């Protein structure tokens, strides 16, 4: 017993000294004593599909007996330290009430990580409306100039490139993994507010479903975790099993420990689109508005048999391919051979469900999709081409200057949601009601169509004759609101 006790104490002392020496110069704080409650405990060791152990400290005796889970966690941290960077952005957004002016410059910080091809992946909102971008490696005092190669504001992703070869020396490229299962643990690495050094927090996956992306106001798949995601974490990787499981990008205001990461399928779709087309191409949509068919009377009205399930088409975008092939009151029964439930969901992994819009968004532009529909009580199969569609009123106008036209002191601008945002955080209630309704519900009737509004009347100095009649000639009644 005495020999065994001395061996255990020697192992503990040896591990403690090794950990102290290895991480003395890093920003991670490791526990000491009989056990090591490491921040990434069990993060990288839980089997796929199994529930991860939470708050179970690794003991040094388990290492001495051959358990290598702690060393796996250490190697993952070493991987992150050589791949995660801090991003410094100087940006200036337009003033949409005075479109010929920009707002004052502001400085923000975010996170990013390197991927194969000598590229840095981060969030679009980290570099939105940028004037210049700098990046800094962990443990380095030097900042390097970075250029934005591609940016997708709908999916809140961006790719940066750095010309300096010195920056890439010793960097480790992270690989993309899979969607984590529920209750699997991930480690969020980044540079959140509260300090200048790198930060690592642990979180458990609690939900996988389409979520509203705040930056681009789009509905795409997201992973909800309970890790603390704060300003500055944006763009940092969520690591699981030495691979990236997602990118931190937003949290839920007013709630505690609810953060979201962008999953790998969305990331791969963005990167593949940039590599194939040389630029960001967007996410596809059918251009349909649908409603559930859970109401029994509704199902009877459209002659749906008890074994049939689907959703009812209530509105079709005139610019979509579906406008030529589908009709209002058609019922979508299946998408690419997958049955659609009455609530609009399809099977996803192990007894999970997800809205069928996710299947549409993962399609490539101009790719075909096979829809099984019910029309007038008869089932039909229709092949439809999916593509990205632009709304009548643009949702965002990042990285571009607003257009405007001044005639005789009258300032005309296209109606955009950023223009409405100038009315404040409560713009939905404080902006003109007619403009708000058009921005959120109106569909375009032809490509390139815009809604033009009279923004303001400039004060005229001196003698100026304003010919309102000629101005009405240039802007028809249908194009003005």
UniProtKB/TrEMBL annotation:
Name by which UniProt lists this protein: Uncharacterized protein
